[in-house]
What we know:
Blueprint: E1 7-10, E2 17-18, H1 20-33, H2 42-48, H3 53-60, H4 67-84, E3 90-91, H5 95-104, E4 108-116, H6 117-128, E5 135-139, H7 150-159, E6 166-170, H8 173-182, E7 185-189, H9 196-201, E8 206-208, H10 213-221
Helix pairs in contact: 1-4, 3-4
Amino acid sequence: MESKVKAIIFDLDGTLVNTIDDLSEACRRVLKEYGRNYEWTEADYKRFVGNGLKKLVERAFDNTLSEEELDEAFKKVSAIYDEIKLDNACAYSGIKEQLAILKKRGIKLAVVTNKPDSAAKDMVIKIFGEKTFDLITGAKSGVPHKPAPDSTLSTLEFLGCKTDEAIYFGDSNVDMQTARNAGLKAIGVLWGFRTREELEKEAPFAIIEKPNEIIETLDKYF
């Protein structure tokens, strides 16, 4: 039986690409510049990400900055991250192969992320090439960030798909909420930055442990 799924939307950080080393390094450099000696671990930074880079900076500074200070620190982290964002970033093992199978099946692929739009496009194209995804949408000024459904719904409109013809894959509560707010079935992934417990609280359609389960899940349920 032919699958009714015509499009799959993916989160980026923690779902398609492991970006935690470069994100945390950019924050550490600015924290050091400000004389902040927080000894955040990788697990801490994995908790901090998900709501956009500015929120990551705010959390890395332990919510101690004024709005003006946060704006300044955010600009510094953004500049550093833009320079180093591909130093260690890499696709999770098995992701490229799964995407190739989906493309071969004629399923449209898109990225919706809270990473700044230009950085998201640059990263996805350099890691996956220009032809893998039909649309890459990052955070833009004036457009509400996830978990607001705006970017996801505009992506579906661009792809010419209805909500019941698409699935959303992500690794965080923000992603699960985004899918729910947009009316899509959500699949939580455990190879990223958040825990099973966090995903289960959002009651996604399914939770998977390894990238090769993307196709298995599609064949099993759709």
